[in-house]
């Protein structure tokens, strides 16, 4: 008698390990480290313009409304909205 894989019986694909499952709890949140990486990769000009070494801390503090040390989606939307306004102002002033 062969294994389930050999015989085609059972639902063997359900047993494929899914390492990301363990991270589901914080998959949609940014830690301070991840926020810093995001700012460095996507908004490096912003960090360069900040002479303040605590710039990431300050951004984190501003965004982390519930104070859990992470930026969830709703908190992240505030950053996106602020960037949208800033870009809009920039392009209006430079048009
Ligand atoms: Ca938070």
Beta percentage is: under 5%
Distance between the termini: 75 Å
What would CATH call the class of the domain at 28-93? Mainly Alpha
Helix content percent band: 40-55%
Which ligands does the model contain, each kind named once?
calcium ion
Give the spatial strand order of the biggest sheet: 1-2
- Number of DSSP-assigned strands: 2
* Secondary structural class: mainly alpha
**What is the count of helical runs?**
5
InterPro entries: EF-hand-dom_pair, EF_Hand_1_Ca_BS, EF_hand_dom, S100/CaBP7/8-like_CS, S100_Ca-bd_sub
Pfam family, one: S_100
Protein name: Protein S100
Region (Disordered): 1-24
Question: What does this 3D model show about the protein?
Answer:
By secondary structure, the protein is mainly alpha-helical. It has a domain at 28-93: Recoverin, domain 1. It has five helices and two strands; from the N terminus they run αβαααβα. The chain has helices at 4-7, 32-42, 44-49, 55-63, 73-93, and strands at residues 30-31, 70-71. A two-stranded antiparallel ribbon has the order 1-2. The model is unreliable at 16-25 (pLDDT under 50). The site of calcium ion has 7 residues, from β2. Residues 1-24 are annotated as: Disordered. Pfam families: EF-hand_1 (PF00036), S_100 (PF01023). Residues 51-86 form the EF-hand domain.
